[in-house]
Hints:
Residues 12-159 form the Phosphoribosyltransferase domain. This protein is α/β, with parallel strands linked by helices. The chain contains 3 helices and 9 strands. The chain has a 6-stranded mixed sheet, sandwiched between helices. Helix 3 (104-114) links the parallel strand 5 and strand 6. Helix 1 (11-28) crosses helix 2 (44-53). The chain is globular and about 50 Å long.
Amino acid sequence: MEDKIRVLLTEEEVNKRISEVAEQISRDYEGKSLHLICVLKGGVFFTCELAKRLTVPVSLDFMSVSSYGDDTKSSGVVRIVKDLDEPLAGKEVLIVEDIIDSGRTLSYLIEVLKQRGPKSIHLCTLLDKPERRVKKQVKVDYTCFTIPDEFVVGYGLDYAQKYRNLPFIGVVEQQ
Ligand code: PRP
Ligand code: MN
Ligand code: MG
């Protein structure tokens, strides 16, 4: 059976907002180079769209930290599925995520990456669901949209690995 998906944020709204945040980041990092860390798999679409709009020099690396598996609820277990290829020493690091929900993924990731000696480490997310936060210490530096507690898909976000390729943010409606 097909899921019913309601549009929460249109492609135009998302792209416009990413451009605004990219401008702000480019201003904040003027004169520096940025090392973007894309958190796979969800962060991949946002990372590309953001990176294309940045006007400072950018390098990219990828990491996969999974906490959900194929379930819609967090298992609470975070594990590294794929580590970075490059060292972080001396780099201006910006972690790029699709969504911050409980904050478990990011609180774990930040702790791990801090120990690798980056010059700075900041966090950028497409979506933030503050109502669901368990790890209150996670500080988000750049947020495109703050959203209510609904199960969202598209723009990298999946429901049992489906719908990542939707060009907008949608809500999976309960049948
Ligand atoms: C999702 C999402 C974030 C994380 C947010 O990833 O992409 O990385 O969960 O949840 P949290 O704040 O409660 O930790 P998921 O583990 O589903 O892997 P995926 O990116 O491969 O879909
Ligand atoms: Mn993810
Ligand atoms: Mg997922």
